[in-house]
Amino acid sequence: MNDPLSINDPRAHEARTRRLNDALRRFHVGGRVLLSLGITCLSDNAIASILNAVRTYDGFSAENDSDNLHDFGIIEVGEHTVMFKIDVASAPRSAGISPLSPYAPSPPFIPD
Fold first, then answer.
1. Which of 67, 70, 73, 110 has a CA 20 to 30 Å removed from the CA of 27?
2. Nearby residues of 97 by Cβ (< 8 Å), 6 or more positions away
3. Which residue intervals make up region (Disordered) (predicted)?
4. Quick one: which of 107, 55, 50, 110 has its CA closest to 81?
C-alpha cells in the first residue's frame, strides 16, 4: 500500500484512511482519543463501557457510512446515546508527513 502510484488511486486512499480510522477506533493507536466533557462527567464504569462499545462497533453500512471510511457512528450504551467521530486528516504529522500519504509508515497490523 506504500506504492507511490497509489497516491492517485481513490480506492487505495479510501482503504488506507479506513485502516487508520479502524486502528484508532479499535486499538487507540495512530492518534489521540478525546472525550467530551459530558462523557468525562460519567462514572468510570460508564466511560469504560462507552470506550468498549466504540472500540467494538461494527455497524458500518452503505446507509450510515456512505464514504466507507469508518469515521463516524452513533451507538446506544446503557441510557446514553453516543456519537463518535474519527478524523485521520487532522491527525498529528510525523516528520511533516500526512498519515494519508502513501509514503507514511503503515499502521500496525489490524486483525479482521
1. 67
2. 103, 104
3. 93-112
4. 50
Which has the closest alpha carbon to 110: 30, 26, 14, 31?
Answer: 26
- Give the three cell numbers for residue 4: 507511490
**Cell numbers placing 51:** 470506550
| Structural domain boundaries in the chain | 4-90
Query: Do 25 and 86 form a contact (C-beta atoms < 8 A)?
Result: yes
